[in-house]
Each structure stands twice: as C-alpha cells, then as structure tokens.
Please model this.
Amino acid sequence: MANTPAWLGKDDLTNSVEQKGNWIKWGKVGDGFKGILVSREMRPRKNFNTGAMEQGEVFEFSIIGGEYHEADKKGNAIEPGVTLKEGSKYFCDDSKRIGAGMRDIRVGDEVIILFESTQPNKDPKFQDPKIIKVRFLKHHSDWVAKTAGVTDPEPAGAPDLMAPDFGA
Model:
C-alpha cells in the first residue's frame, strides 16, 4: 500500500489475514452443509440474470460440517471441493432454490441444506436448475441464550404478532 493511513500500525497489514466473504456455492450434486442459523437480514444484492441491484434476504450460518465445489463458466464442478470447518461462518442468499425452505427457520435453528439433484432445463442454452433442499433438525435455545443480542428480524411482510391491537 503506497500511502499507509496514519491510524494503521506499521505492521498491521503484514500481520493480518484478508477476510473474504464466505458464500456457499452449489457446484456439484451432494454439496451442502449442516449449520445453525445465526442471522438473517435484508441486503442489497446483484440479480445475476438482469445485473440489477435488488433487496434480498441473506442467511448467515455457523457451520457444523459440509462441503461445496466452485464451478467453471460452463457449470462444471472444480475439484477438489471446499471443506467447511466447524465454527466457520458462511452465507446463503434467498434464491428461489432455498428461500421457500427458509421461511420458517429462525435464528438458533440447526438445518441441513443439500444440493440433491438437477432438473432438465427446457432450454438447452441454460444450465439445468438445481434442486436444493432445506431440512430442519432442531432448535438450539441454549445457543440463542448464549448469543443474546443477535436479532432475528421477521421476513418481509410478516405480521407483527406482538403489536397491540388498538382497533379492538
């Protein structure tokens, strides 16, 4: 770095490790993970079909175990896969693939998310759609109690069941 900011220590850059966003990829049937949902929030994200920015829900998981594969431009899995280490944090977005399955999942829930199969595409110019399933295992109330302060906003449009009913 040519012009080091004054607030940055002399050896801060050489003694640090760059952190990249950990996003789950679905490169090969069998890719997936088991983890605990630690947050869900609405964020701007790029629509890969149109290139436009739009709001979408992003899910963050504390990983228990799993593996995924990067894919090349033709959609072929790149070996070897990436092994997910226990305790690491990874993200998924609310694509049509997992969004419906995540509807009732709350912070503290342990889930399995698995790329189970593909479905033949009617248009051979496009890759076959990926069938990714969300499975609920259990709720970790002990984990939720230990991480008090982590919020779990309701999905967009959900009714506020705790709001007083002034019309009654």
Summary: The CA atoms of residues 69 and 81 lie 4 Å apart.
